[in-house]
Amino acid sequence: MTSPSPAKTPTRKPTGKRRAASSGRLPLVPIVIGLIVVVGIIGILVSRGSSSSSSKIDTSLSQTQPVSVTGTPLPALEDPANDAAVGAKLPDIKGKSFDGTEVDITADGTPKLILFVAHWCPHCQREVPLIVDWLKRNGTPKGVGLYSVATSTSAQRPNYPPSSWLTREQWPIPVLADDEKFSAANAAGLTGFPFFVATSGDGKVVARTSGEITTAQISQLIDSARSAGGQRQD
Q: How many domains, the chain?
């Protein structure tokens, strides 16, 4: 709609019709300003969301830690049903958690079940909450130590960092943060994720398996470790 032509007499006041016509025009300037404000608000919210996500990463934590391995590394797992590592001693693995707390996985007289996980592994991402829920419902198993190793860590892969992931999942099991060379994983003969190693009290391998397993299978691994002998008698 075009605007009316200007009146020829400068002193002439606008008529009611012209006012009506003028009032029918869209207030473009307020609309544009409103859009700018809305876009600005959205930008601020997105910025806050990003900074809130990044703030969840505790930069005081180290996602990898030095690891000491003493003993002969286990052979790679080829066939869980005929595992060549059964009966062999798992090397002593000493390291730290993300916050620097010492975590040692050694033959200390207590049977163990050790779970190796990678933050980017979708199978691990499904297995971890399954175990968390199972432990909440059943409690920590008696007579068997539960340990976990966060390995194959990479800032270039999804779901990084592992410390934030496991915290979100309320992971209750002690975590040893593997080093950049994956020394702990190599010592256990890891071939896939998640990876489970059950040992007797004297550190000998009772069973190993990889991939997602059920809570019933986890119970079987724990029972196997508990009944394998070599348990310290207090």
A: 2
pLDDT digits (tens, 9 = 90+) for 213-229: 999 999 999 999 999 97
Q: What is the CA angle 125-131-134, rounded to 5?
A: 145
120/174 same-domain check: yes
By residue range, what is the domain housing residue 91?
Answer: 68-226
Both 51 and 72 in one domain: the answer is: no
Angle CA 107–108–113, to nearest 5: 65
Decide: helix, strand or coil at residue 16.
helix
pLDDT band at 57 (very low <50, low <70, confident <90, very high): low
Residue 4 lies in a domain: no
Take residue 132 and report the two structure tokens written for it: 């968390």
Regarding whether 104 and 218 lie in a shared domain, the answer is yes
131 and 189 in a common domain: yes
Give the chain's end-to-end CA distance (angstroms, integer).
95
Per the CB < 8 A criterion, the answer to whether 119 and 150 are in contact is yes
111/109 Cα distance (integer angstroms): 7
Q: What is the pTM of this model?
A: 0.75
